[in-house]
Automatic annotation (TrEMBL):
Keyword terms: Disulfide bond, Glycoprotein, Receptor
Source species: Camelus dromedarius (Dromedary)
Gene3D superfamilies reported for this sequence: Immunoglobulins
The protein's name in its UniProt record: Tyrosine-protein phosphatase non-receptor type substrate 1
PROSITE patterns attached to this UniProt entry: IG_LIKE
Record's keyword annotation contains Disulfide bond: yes
SUPFAM superfamilies: Immunoglobulin
Amino acid sequence: MTMMFIVVNAPSVVKPSPPMVSGPATRAPPEQTMSFTCRSHGFSPRNISLKWFKNGSEITASQTSVDPEGDSVSYNISSTAKVVLAPGDVRSQVVCEVAHVTLQGGPPLRGTANLSQTI
């Protein structure tokens, strides 16, 4: 007796990569608005949650996109947040937090940028 298994369009379930946060290439004085970008890749299914924080307080993303648009084996997310630098921000952090079904209710993945590298 021969058994045969056929898998038809089984959705792939893949964890996102740890988020990477990048800031501006040049330093800036306080009162300037700077952009920070967070990227995570290789996850599936497409639904994902991304949040930004500065010193533990949630801040708004100026733009977030998940690519590609249609069906795919895996997806990438990119998000940008604009942060106004304050004189005391030398010790501050900007954190990008990614939550996905593959993390099974565990803690979200985090990427961090220290503002001491920007001011």
